[in-house]
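Hi team,

As requested, here is the filled-out complex form for the heme C run. I kept the field names the same as last time so the parser does not choke. Let me know if anything looks off before we queue the next batch.

— J.
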Amino acid sequence: MAWALAAAAFAFAATPEWHRFATAADTPPSPVAVRVAARAAGLAALNTVRVPKAPNLDEFLRPGSEATAVQLGKALFWDVQVGSDGQACASCHFHAGADNRTKNQINPGTRGEDTKFGVTVTSAGAAQATAKPNFGANFTLSAGDFPLHLLGDDNEVNYNKRVVLRDTNDVVSSQGVLKSLFGGVGTAVHDVGTAQPDGVFHVAGVNTRRVEPRNTPSVINAVFNHDNFWDGRAQNVFNGVDPFGLLSREAKILLLEGGKLVEQRVEIPTSSLASQSVGPPVNEDEMSYAARAFPDIGKKVLPLRPLATQLVDPQDSVLGPLARGTPGLTTAAYADMIRAVFLPQYWDAGDTVTFDGERRVIGKASDGAKSYSVMEANFALFFGLAVQMYEATLVSDQTPFDRFMGGDDAALDADQLRGLLLFVNRGKAEQKADPVFAGVGRGNCVACHGGAELTNVSETFYAAGIHLADVTAEMNNGVLQEGTGTMLFDRGFSNIGVRPTAEDIGHGGKQFGIPLSTQPLAIGGEIEILVENQPPPPMLGIYGAFKIPGLRNAELTGPYFHNGGEATLAQVVEFYARLGDFADVNIDALDVGLARIALETKDQPPLTKFLLALTDERVRIEAAPFDHPQLLVPDGHPGDATKVTCANGFLPCEAMIESPAVGAQGRVAKGLAPLRPFLNLPQLSTTP
Ligand code: HEC
Ligand code: HEC
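And here is what came back:
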């Protein structure tokens, strides 16, 4: 089993960077002075923040049903019956809330319309030295493939002096479904579907599972994000139907009012996670055969026993009371849980609903497959709220950093204290005057990774307004610096030059023709000239901007950034120290916060060590609330990127790995090794 192999980890102490740093003979900073400086910069323990919660849940839930709703949400999140061919939400979010698989995890860059895999070697003469097997479907990644953007000198700050040894717009992400057209609800885990040849995700004509175009973020602490997804498209207001909140004009649920079934628009604020959760189940890359509607999922899973094919640990912190020793919960059907949790006016109607194209018709004589009960028709509402309520329990606030901010002077060692100072140092006048910052480089991290949540996309920060203005960034003879113009940003989203803006415009994108950012609308007229995947017009900091991640448990959630381009935290820190990879190409939309970073080589190990102090041990060992049912996840197909060795026509065989069920005490109690970083890499090393 792949999990057993994970035990062969490297020791941090063996990395050369660490040795070099450990011999530096500085006096350790005073914990009390560091805490004062960190608080002044706006940092705090996460348990000082109230977990965001929808204010109008009582319009939908029966009084006192919240605990059952969390059970329903946890079951739905981990249940492989939800997907068309065995995909659960957790299939891509099973490792510290994210995904650490290495085989068949590459997307060729489809966000930028590129359907061809490959690594491009960009500087003359570098080809022979660093030639790699080209990426492809079913490829197995290894340490040597990272960083995806490789320089001759990874610490070269001057863009004009850089030698690029290797570059690719390919993205490391998560495998989803095998390409198929939905044909109806089946009786088993798999829907009825017609397999389709896949022009992109295949090896020599044999299909492989399709891979997402952006790296998978962790669901842990996602509840604190005002908007979710890298581009923020999972709207804060949940409309009960789809991810697009108020942007979606047609989204309506069904409601029994005075004995009559009516269509109604609903607005559930503080519910980005509910909005998010109703996307993947019908997405033809993630969990669904093409053209499956959400009511079809209701039709499929409502009669099914929750987790019918998966073991649940009797000590599971949420589902334990419903465990029964054999796969599945004691509850006979999801419909029973829906009835127990939600108010009857959302499901207790005899009416039949049919879909006439996109249009919903109530009470029309059924045409069989396309006719639904009200409970089925409203399934997205139930799914979204229940999954969100489960995800809201995935809060990791017991990290060494949180203990330190809460007053424990011994929680961080001397290097981590220095790292924290680097993290919060913005070079402000009051910081320059404070002796604790003497000799400390300017990380400027807190400018974007702010507040107790360590991200400015938090609900807390949004309460303070959305748009921000700052000066532009400028390139001067290859040197990134502050410019003289002004630029608008959206709070919590930044272009920091990870990839060229034109490859993926991120938060500058649109939904139903409406910008994800309200900025172009505010500026007026600008909306007309926005074209997907075109270079951005100048001075709009939303293009190529991505959601700023909260950093807790990052040790376990590599690879990093929206493209999965860095394999270790040391590589991420090195990226910042050299001021990014594409600041020059992206200059028109670049966040000036990147230009304000000034880190020396000696600053990098303590900063990385500080990031390691953001790991909650409960996440590492999957103790409650991070315990979970058993899950088998697809892990590529037998063979490699040149040949699939087991197939039936264009349909491949599957390899699976198991994440065994664990209870509240987590993996250790089951004799399982703790979770490891991506590829088991030593996080302090830049050259794995
Ligand atoms: C095939 C893999 C896959 C599956 C299955 C999947 N996800 Fe994700 N998830 C992703 C990827 C990739 C992203 C980032 C997509 C983007 O930002 O464009 C993501 C983003 C998210 C986020 C946003 C986190 C953040 O910080 O922005 C949440 C929450 C989430 N998924 C929860 C779920 C839930 C709930 C389900 C099931 C309904 C699910 N995921 C199914 C791959 C997957
Ligand atoms: C100007 C804003 C800004 C600054 C300053 C900044 N970050 Fe980030 N950070 C981001 C954004 C935006 C992303 C995601 C970028 C992407 O994927 O395109 C990110 C991603 C990360 C990630 C990857 C997390 C993941 O899950 O993939 C780490 C780690 C990180 N930052 C640490 C730091 C550290 C350490 C510093 C200080 C040296 C720092 N950041 C400074 C905005 C910023």
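Two things worth flagging: Residues 1-25, 524-531 have pLDDT under 50 and may be disordered. Residues 57-93+177-210+219-391 form one domain.

Thanks,
J.
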